[in-house]
Amino acid sequence: MARLVFLGTPPAAAVSLAALVRAGHDVELVVSRADTRRGRGTARTPSPTKQAALELGLEVTDRLDDITSTGAALGIVVAYGRLVPGRILESLPMVNLHFSLLPRWRGAAPVERAVLAGDVETGVCVMRLEETLDTGPVLASRQVGIDEHEHVSSLVDRLASTGAQLLVEVLAPGVDALGAGTPQRGEVTYAEKVLPEELRLQWSQPAAVLERVVRLDRAWTTFRGDRLLVLDAEARPHSVSSAGPDDTPGPPGTLHETRVDTGEGVMELHVVQPAGKRPMPAAAWWRGMRVEAGERLGDEGERR
User: Fold this and answer.
1) Are the beta carbons of 212 and 198 closer than 8 angstroms?
2) What is the number of domains present in the chain?
3) Which one of 136, 160, 266, 271 is CB 3.0 to 4.6 Å from 231, fit for a cystine?
């Protein structure tokens, strides 16, 4: 088994860390982001990967330069969140587990961009790490289908599990047997970080497009001037909503109980979260708000 250094931050990275330890690898050091402060207090919170490392009894640091003194044979990078500079790579070769089928969706948000683009398939790649962004030769990959209505949180969990298994398989023959990898081929696309404004539901768009935004688990709109998170919803054709005279399609954003008119089709709201409250069924929210006929989500007259 190999002597490793592990670099990672979110829960998805912690899955790979735990798998490598279970497989018998000697993780000399875990590098993760510095603890962050949440809320108004002074207490600082470790990253999910750091928390997992501490529970496994592993040494943790937030300083990349600490890698050079470990004597490890290989570095493993999973959603670390920072580019590793060349001077570090010169001292220790590294491989990266990336959540896409490279070269499609290089960058910070490959899973979110795959969902927004309507991809029906993604996957994981283990590649040699280079100083440039997600450009290294691929050692192994595995395809993962995207379910039609699957949310990002579920997809990330599946990719994390698949990727951890693939990492263990790649390392099983030993570090010296890794090989150079296969150069990436195909059209290159970049997965830029998803900005808050991209998560705002623009009701003039088709319902099918809006559902993809909802599947990112952070979609929002406004109602009566207050922000409303839309946590689960489903696109449907207009004909599905024809249940009475008040269901005649109106301007985009018009509410018909839990149905919302869009530029094409309707969105059936399932779960929403008003500002300052817990998530709730959309039907309960609609009853509590006593929505009047013709009221709209995301009305241009709302206050911010």
Assistant:
1) no
2) 2
3) 271
